[in-house]
Amino acid sequence: MFQLIEDSGYYPMGITSAGDRVHFSVVSPGSECNLVIYEKGQEDIAEKIRFPQEARVGYVWNATVVGDFSNVEYCFEIDKILVEDPFGMSFSGRQVWGEEASLNRVLRASIVKENYDWEKDQLPEIPFEECVLYRLHPRGFTKHPSSGVPEKERGTFAGIIRKIPYLKELGVTTVELLPSIEFQEVMERQDLPGTVTLKEGRSGNLKKPEKKGEKEPSGRLNYWGFIPGLYCAPKASYCSGTTKHPQREFKDLVKSLHQVGMELVMDFYFAGQETEAFVLEVLRFWAREYHVDGFHLIGFSPGGLISRDPYLKGRKLFAQSWGDAPKTKQKCLGEYNDGFAIDMKRVLKGDESQMGNLAFRTRHNPEPHGVINYIANINGFTLMDLVCYDRKHNEANGENNRDGYDYNFSWNCGIEGPTKKKKVLEMRRKLLRNAYLLLFLSQGTPLLLAGDEFGNSQEGNNNAYCQDNEVSWLNWKLTEENSDLLEFVKAAIRFRKAHPMFHMPKEPRIMDYLSCGQPDVSYHGEKAWCPEFENFRRQLGILYCGKYASLSDGRCDDSFFVAYNMHWEPHEFSLPNLPKGQFWHVAVNTDGKANGGLYPEGMELFLEKQKHYMVPPRTILVFIGKTVSGEWLETQKKSKPEKRVKRAAKDKGSKAEKGKK
């Protein structure tokens, strides 16, 4: 059926097929290597072909085989042990999520020969400063019945496609997927000191190994997927029952996002045992085969090699740090760490000595690489839990609540967990509005964790890595229950996009380099032009001069004054003077009740007093400088006395009525 032929050509790792000829390359230090072939759906080996020793180069085994591979699957046998092809593009044996039998199953790869119609697909290549990132779990995003996705597509790539209109309306430009390669989610039992092994998991009763040497399932699932896996295959269990074709469905997702001008970035976990060449080959493969827009490298990341690779130019690359990464014409590297989150959480709850951090984080955007800003992410509380819990509640993870961060920098607003107390709920909502503004009014690239826009909670679990249930699945009913939060986030993203002063391509220089009379960004205390950074200060004003940023029509952006009062007491701010003919208006007030404190463009609240403003406790106000005609101003002045007279008459009448009583 199959014939081994001589072939002295050079081939990349994995398989290279042409017609009925397939070349196999696999790395192994073993002394013997065989290609093991099965007919699809059959357990017995159909044929076994030995790799010739003379075709071995170093640790790389090579073999070219001729035959009909249309209905077969394969794996390798190295020194009598069956192993998967690390470069396989499609596998059978793990199509069902959480199936415990897959723990002891060697996956078989298929020869993929499908011609996919990309329909002239092009990468959007959105600049870092214009991106709004949205990190989601491919399964948890739509698995909940409330997602509105057809049952067969819940928790799949197809389910994400269904939600693209929602993401577009929200204002997202770039979707970041948690690991979506073929990884083993069924966790092996580990008898570790202090670890509680769950007796029953979502996948059913535990099964004892039938054969000696087999792995025993723990009853828990690795929901996130930050483990080594088969790096060239989309996860089969994230494929819907509609298509049953992971490669095609993932390509449909990428193409659908590109068609509406959105990007896809993938998370990849490397344990550090991989070679730089292997990591580079994997990223090149996904860029070439799946048109992926970027990669978030977690664990091991050979930064120097990857950042210089010509195949990956134009792709976004995220990592914990890029060290001495070279400066490039097109910014493609993004620093992705918890620095922004830690500082902004402390700012949000009103810790002391944070105003310097607030000033730094809102402007930080170095030229060699971008910065990815987030306040909440998978490794910590959701935004809602950040204002509802003082302590982590990870008991359901089975590790005696010892896993996860102990330093959450959170505040429950007086009551731990859910409550019906109105004052507590109002405070929590105000803090959430503050958090959204801290994120979207900062330079760099904002990242929103899926569900944070409508108050998603994980019940205080800050490390839900093994929670494949409603703790981690998004409850889409909250889009209605917390519609005020959702609308605030949409408006905050629109506001950011409309005003380039808040997303400049380079970090503000805090200098008047245009000689226009003001620096691009300046800092103020309660008195204008007098910044105060003492450790006890919890208030700061930031002035943005609109002359340093241009709108799409060439006009200068507006000027803004953002007053941050993170103190539990009110503070009066002096407002900096504006050029003649311009007056301060309130654009956003997180203490406001009407419209969530947001004023639509063109309907900002005119300030009667232009010199001072009393900012309520734990409140952020955004003032916008707008040009006002003399005629309009006179109308305002004439209307004010009448309003004051009517108000005085009303007050006088009320007092008279009280006197009669």
Main attributes of the structure:
661 residues; alpha+beta; eight-stranded parallel barrel; six-stranded antiparallel sheet; 12 helices; 32 strands
> What portion of residues is helical?
10-25%
Residue runs with pLDDT of under 50 for 5 or more positions: 192-207, 641-661
Question: Strand content of the residues, in percent?
Answer: 15-25%
Could you tell me the mean pLDDT? 91
Strand order of the largest sheet: 11-12-19-20-21-22-23-24
Biggest β-sheet description: 8 strands, parallel, barrel
**Backbone structural class:** alpha+beta
Instruction: Tell me the number of strands.
Output: 32
Rg calc: 29 Å
Report how far apart the termini are: 107 Å
Apparent shape: elongated
Number of helices: 12
Write the layout of secondary structure elements.
Blueprint lengths: L2 E3 L8 E5 L2 E7 L5 E7 L5 E6 L9 E7 L5 E7 L2 E3 L7 E2 L15 E3 L22 E4 L20 H6 L1 H7 L3 E4 L3 E2 L3 E3 L11 E2 L2 E2 L11 E5 L8 E5 L11 H14 L3 E8 L5 H15 L3 E6 L3 H5 L8 E4 L13 E3 L3 H11 L5 H9 L6 E4 L9 H4 L35 H19 L4 E5 L28 H4 L1 H16 L22 E4 L14 E6 L14 E7 L5 E4 L7 E8 L15 E2 L5 E4 L3 E9 L2 H31 L1
Parallel strand pairs: 11-12, 11-24, 12-19, 19-20, 20-21, 21-22, 22-23, 23-24
Antiparallel strand pairs: 1-6, 2-3, 3-6, 4-5, 4-7, 7-8, 7-10, 9-10, 13-18, 14-17, 15-16, 25-26, 26-27, 27-32, 28-31, 29-30, 29-32
Helix pairs in contact: 6-7, 6-9, 9-11
Describe this structure in words.
It is a single chain. This protein is α+β, with helices and mostly antiparallel strands. Helix content is 21%, strand content 23%. The chain has twelve helices and 32 strands. Strands 11-12-19-20-21-22-23-24 form an eight-stranded parallel β-barrel. It is elongated and about 95 Å long. 42% of the residues are buried.
